[in-house]
DNA sequence: TTGTACGCGTTATCAG
DNA sequence: CTGATAACGCGTACAA
């Protein structure tokens, strides 16, 4: 592998000249440029990125921390991040923590070793103090999640309003026994959805039955299991509000297996609006998060921080949308 | 950020001593070690990975090239890769080419800039000659795919036998008009499945109707569209063999929308066995690929190459399995 | 067992 | 517009 020195020798110039021509496409006399460019081609020279990064202390790379790659919502957000990053010549590395705290810490630590320039996290679970300490030292943006009462830059929707919209829809349809299935992780977004679920019931003079609240894995199989628990509990319910579409899909599958029809016997509403949700049988009523946009905003924000610009708005709230399909039994 | 030099000064030793203690947990006198370890803690020293990588010309990182992160099969394989990589202290970077040739080339090129030590590709679409050239120079393993007649190390299932098994099952169930929906990309795996689809029909004295073969995007929405094309064509068919579960799911959704029942009116068989496939309505009959294992094997193979061991078997063929569920209408 | 000296490939600074 | 020189932080051959 040729080095910049060899190119310089071949072109009869100094290494710095080559370096400058590489960095700046208008630098140098036309003739010098040509000679250097030729030598580069001739020798099939490729800059050693490692050396460059070492010298500049800059990797032009960010990492995106995701709790679970099998949930495609994270992918859809990442697409937005990638688009924006591309436009600014940044590379994006995706890491999957599989919801393991140790991996989250590991990847956050990596930035101290100069491996990346910034982080967008959708799995910020380490203690808040640690996280805030981190944010004061290194560029960090949290997407999709909500770090309550914190100054950490965040891009997300209004979970409370969105959940209220979903619940209001079910209640308007006449449901009085609404179950809730959610993640047992302590992500704040799930807590907000659970709290709002309770509040909306109370606001509408409906009772909150703890038996109708199940927490488990935020996956298809998790939803499947929780729905089975609901059925096994013997409690009556005519609707399920799932805190994520993956769980909603699993729940529908479980209901069907027991001969319970969706939406005729039980209505189901999800959260996220994944690609598969509109193709599912029945198609899911759900809250659409502006996933692509969340990704774009998150990167822009991170870029500002990396450039050490002041970030005025620390929290960006993007609009959600209630998407009504068949799983709740009524088109309005 | 403290450097190794500062640690050395603080501990009253030379930088090389620190370096050696870091690299080797038995090196040095007990007392020296203690002093150095203390200084490291004191100064919150973190080795500069960039400098280290630059020095050793080794990143201990591999990249996994994936064509489409929204198809979870790639994620399930990546889990296997990650497990194995972890065990050998390698980091895994996931890149999503979104099926763009230019991105594939871009990422392959990156290895020439020393950014990674090796590549596992599930989206090897650049011209075969280029790919083979690359493989002679850098560690590369192809997973899931098949590069026909090539010496490039590969881990996959036997596509032809697997497809034959799926087709034989449908034919045994009495289907005579079987449609095929597949990807319009020129991935060899799809070509093999298409060819075998044709062969199995012929072997069983069934006619091959080109109208019943549709190619499109290998996604849910792609499958949705292709099924609609089949219906619109007016041709009769009682079964669909989809070259991927995502397409199968989209197809089922389209059929249902037109009031065509699955499996009563049309049987559907997919390929891959994703997590969602067993929860879909109806649950998918499909070919299970040993995804996790494919990932593990692929990394082991790559590791051997990176260590410059000779790889004797260039192609690993792992066993597939025909998983029979409701979408084909019969339990055997 | 430990320290000294050097170099990896690049870019920034300064001088010409 | 261009060249010489230094420096980034670390690992290692060699010397002590």
Provide keyphrases for this structure.
homodimer, 332 residues, alpha/beta, 434 Repressor (Amino-terminal Domain), Rossmann fold, 3 domains, 4-stranded parallel β-sheet, 15% strand, DNA-binding
Describe the structure in your own words.
- Two copies of one chain form a homodimer.
- Chain A is of the alpha/beta class and 332 residues long.
- The first copy, chain A, has three domains: 4-55, lambda repressor-like DNA-binding domains (434 Repressor (Amino-terminal Domain), Orthogonal Bundle); 61-156 and 291-318, Response regulator (Rossmann fold); 159-288, 3-Layer(aba) Sandwich (Rossmann fold), CATH 3.40.50.2300.
- In chain A, 45% of the residues lie in helices and 15% in strands.
- Chain A has helices spanning 4-11, 15-23, 30-43, 49-56, 72-87, 101-110, 128-137, 159-172, 188-203, 220-233, 245-257, 291-306, and strands spanning 61-66, 91-96, 118-121, 140-143, 154-157, 178-183, 213-216, 239-242, 267-269, 286-288, 315-318, 321-323.
- Chain A has a six-stranded parallel sheet, sandwiched between helices. Chain A has a four-stranded parallel sheet with strand order 7-6-8-9, sandwiched between helices.
- The A-B interface holds A 1, 46-51, 53-54, 57, 59, 69-70, 72, 75-76, 78-79, 82, 93-96, 98, 109-110, 112-115, 219-221, 224, 249-250, 252-253, 256, 275-276, 279-281, 283 and B 1, 46-51, 53-54, 57, 59, 69-70, 72, 75-76, 78-79, 82, 93-96, 98, 109-110, 112-115, 219-221, 224, 249-250, 252-253, 256, 275-276, 279-281, 283.
- Chain A binds a DNA duplex (16 and 16 nucleotides) through helix 2 and helix 4.
